Amino acid sequence: GAVVSQHPSRVICKSGTSVKIECRSLDFQATTMFWYRQFPKQSLMLMATSNEGSKATYEQGVEKDKFLINHASLTLSTLTVTSAHPEDSSFYICSAREGQFDSYEQYFGPGTRLTVT
Amino acid sequence: GQNIDQPTEMTATEGAIVQINCTYQTSGFNGLFWYQQHAGEAPTFLSYNVLDGLEEKGRFSSFLSRSKGYSYLLLKELQMKDSASYLCAAMDSNYQLIWGAGTKLIIKP
Fold this sequence. Notes:
The complex is a heterodimer of chains A (117) and B (109).
Chain A: E1 4-7, E2 10-13, E3 19-25, E4 32-38, E5 45-51, E6 57-58, E7 67-73, E8 76-81, E9 90-97, E10 107-108, E11 112-116
Parallel strand pairs in A: 2-11
Antiparallel strand pairs in A: 1-3, 3-8, 4-5, 4-9, 5-6, 7-8, 9-10, 9-11
Chain B: E1 3-5, E2 9-13, E3 18-25, E4 32-37, E5 44-49, E6 53-57, E7 60-65, E8 70-75, E9 84-91, E10 97-99, E11 103-108
Parallel strand pairs in B: 2-11
Antiparallel strand pairs in B: 1-3, 3-8, 4-5, 4-9, 6-7, 7-8, 9-10, 9-11
């Protein structure tokens, strides 16, 4: 089956620093990747959708200058949380889809738990 | 607007059957997904329905009624490991997933 990895799985950083999270599709080419954020006991919140080679589409209320997304290749997307603050502490999950419009299933990475102190 | 409704929490007994309901309103419709999510882990895919009817997959079955904007996930022969959150998500006309808040299922011995 399709596998998506995320790195790191856990990260603790100090307030004001930046953190980069990598999302890789290991055995398929991901035309589209999604970044989600999940706070405790809440559902997934879509942050942005990225297509390889183009700029990410951010959901309303998500600051694109704070959450930088780069989908540089068909197997790698990165999310950089810039100038992190404690309120950015959350569980960040990426997912990947092979096609853009003709493939329905999203394959999820294992998630990255970010703690900002 | 787009909306997904599902119960916040359900409790069931080991070995029993439980049905988790989901209603949806989306701009266009390209299918209904169910995912399982254990605490601290990412969601895992359970089922996908795009046509009306029941899809059976082992102990889990999923049903869809497009005319009613309604789906349910049926879990049979419940096991303790089934304790998790179950997320309902509908895919809209832009192939974006609209997520429900999830149903936390508690299994008691």
